[in-house]
Write a structure and sequence with these properties.
With about 300 residues, the chain is α/β, with parallel strands linked by helices. About 40% of the residues lie in helices and about 15% in strands. It has 2 domains: about 220 residues, Aldolase class I (TIM Barrel), CATH 3.20.20.70; about 60 residues. β3, α4 and β4 form a beta-alpha-beta unit. α6 runs parallel beside α7 and α11 packs antiparallel against α12. Bound molecules: flavin mononucleotide.
């Protein structure tokens, strides 16, 4: 049965290049209530769904599964939403926050913040095919003053929830996330608003809930290399970084060829080893490893 976003839940944000099937599974085991794929091209799904399918594996352990699409053409969005590969996902989320030039130059990602009519048309196109459509937005391109109206437009277009990253496009990932602006959107909308930006531990998780009264909290960078951020917030037994890395790799191996896993896991390893004693030496071993067995052996040493 299709699930909706849980109230009071802690969500793993979509992170391009990182929220692969293994990482999502491990974060779910550690207590993440909702997990998002990285952003997936709606056009890519329409033209070459076999290649895009690689980003769409899921495991039963994921509690509420969200697939995030990017695109700005309603026809492609509608067609992508109808792709059978998306059926296993509970929610289709539309990316209105990606700041990178390669995306915004096509009018996608955070460029949609500059054109609420187009953004609303994208949501309506998705809604014509799927019921559970959500939006992940930033506060604006460079000016935050239109954030509340933009969010209201997405609600009117049929979005069932909005996740708000409290930065503008121009801020990229630096500067402080503006939780006041998120609180204003929470107060203005009738649909659930998920607060996102700068949650790195239990204290900041509690603080963002207090500050914004949001329906849920979304964590991005704070989870990289540390899926136990969810265990700590939920008060459950931590998995430990080495065990998390080992399970992460094993789940990846169940879905992808070992050479791909070996290449893709390296950027995660840099995160898993951050702040760990002897991490530099282990990182060198991992980066020079040519087969996954050596990396698995390394996981046992963390
Ligand atoms: C490397 C990287 C990749 C990201 N990829 C996506 C993405 O695919 N889709 C998306 O909506 N947001 C993406 N984000 C933004 C995060 O989902 C999140 O909104 C942002 O990092 C702020 O939350 P945080 O302070 O908890 O990290 C990405 C962020 C980073 C750092």
């Amino acid at each position: 049965m299709t699930q909706f976003l849980p109230k009071g839940g802690v969500y793993l944000a979509p992170i391009a290049g990182y929220t692969d099937v293994g990482f999502r599974a491990v974060c779910s085991m550690c207590g993440a209530d909702v997990t998002y794929t990285e952003m997936v091209s709606a056009k890519g799904l329409c033209y070459d769904s076999a290649r895009t399918a690689d980003l769409l594996y899921t495991t039963d352990g994921e509690k509420v599964k969200c697939v995030q699409l990017f695109g700005c053409e309603p026809d492609f969005i509608a067609k992508a939403c109808g792709n059978p590969l998306l059926e296993k996902f509970d929610i289709v989320d539309i990316n209105m926050g990606c700041p990178v030039p390669k995306i915004v130059k096509n009018g996608e990602g955070s460029a949609l913040l500059l054109d609420a009519d187009k953004a609303a048309a994208v949501v309506r196109a998705a809604k014509a095919v799927r019921d559970n459509v959500t939006v992940k937005m930033r506060l604006g391109w460079s000016d935050k003053s239109g954030a509340k109206d933009f969010a209201l437009r997405m609600q009117d277009a049929g979005a069932r929830a909005v996740a708000v990253h409290g930065r503008t496009r121009d801020m990229y990932y630096s500067g402080k996330a503006d939780w006041d602006a998120i609180a204003e959107i929470v107060a203005a909308l009738d649909i659930p608003v998920i607060a996102n930006g700068d949650v790195t531990d239990i204290d900041s998780c509690n603080a963002i809930i207090r500050h914004t009264s949001a329906y849920g909290v979304m964590i991005g960078r704070g989870a990289l290399g540390d899926p136990d951020i969810f265990s700590r917030i939920k008060g459950i037994e931590p998995m430990g970084r080495g065990e998390a890395l080992r399970r992460h790799i094993e789940i990846m191996l169940a879905h992808h060829p070992a050479v791909k896993v070996c290449a893709d896991i390296k950027k995660h390893i840099a995160c898993y080893l951050k702040g760990i004693r002897g991490g530099k030496e282990l990182k060198n071993i991992a980066f020079n490893a040519s087969d996954i067995t050596a990396i698995l052996e390394l996981a046992s040493r963390i």
